[in-house]
Predict the 3D structure of the following.
Amino acid sequence: MAKVAGRFARVEPRRRARAFVVGLLADLPRKNCWTIAEHAGDASPAGMQHLLSRASWDADHVRDDIRAFVVEHLADQDAVLVVDETGDLKKGTASVGVQRQYTGTAGRIENSQVAVYLVYSSPAGHAAIDRRLDIPRSWTQDPDRCRVAGIPEEVGFATKPALATEMIAQALDADVPAAWVTGDEVYGGDPHLSAELEKRRIGYVLAVSRKRPITTHAGVFPAGVLAHGLPKKAWQRLSAGAGAKGHRFYDWAQVDIASPPSSAGHRWLLVRRNRRTGELAFYRCYSARPVPLTALVKVAGRRWTVEEAFQSAKGLAGLDEHQVRRWVSWHRWTTLAMLAQAFLAVTAAIERSGTPTPGLASLTCSEIRRLFTALITQPARSLAHRLRWSDWRRRHQARARASHYQRQAAQQP
């Protein structure tokens, strides 16, 4: 918390931010301003709500401190910047950016918010260092709706790859050490993202669809057609990285791609084949210098660290449990959840850097959170405190119910 303390002008929000992060790391069945305030010993959630909505501090400045903190402990010159989006399921239409849209969280079209994240991934560990809330076109075409949600006037519609490009450029401009970028088909199909990376001479391994036209020295072919024409000797069995049950072995092949005229660098189509099912996946690759197949495979395998970061941030730090509706509140909750997840990731990296204890696995983020909750945090648990909060919840519920009935009665003919 000392890393971000200077971003809070007053001592009250500084202390409340610490209590908020501790609450995010606590073993609470649900994490919202009510439960976090009760855990912190507050008399009501008003203080936590004030921290997220009206207190004087800039979430983007705290984001910059999180990025510096992560890089300080996880930096590697060959690190990979991973971009991906995740959705939070929502009810109603008032939450900023919400609409019915596809989200991988549910695997179908649902009422949800979607945000794009940038994860810093190195051999030491991985953590999110930036975020952008995706504002659909249905919102940007309705200025009144945006105004109610507190969306700044200068924020317009932007595609997910455009948001990713903005975050990557901002990280590189801040001298974040990284040599590669990877992402799924949403980002691999965008020419502007790859053009920006090539201009900066940053390598990438971006997934593309099997129908993506690939220009080779023999002509233009869909990626799937090129894969089926590869000889048996073109495939190599390589590990995409260690998983929970051992190394993730696949068959891999590398195909040279013709570079555009007057362009520098080297380009390939990387093909991955599942050894059991035969399912194929395709990646468009670029590097300013020649690299072996093993290097491209290693970067492709790093893409899965973003899923681990999402799982850690949601399961351990409450990233997706917010009940906020406005632009500022969403960014503040998300940033503090990123800070909590970065603390776990860095602590795990420090643990792994030490001498291992024979017969014991290294501490995971989950185990660190469990120990932190049991040994460090000391929530208020007095009988009077619990009873006051029971009274407060029931009083609030009674007011809400009366308000709903009054609104319903006013709408009756």
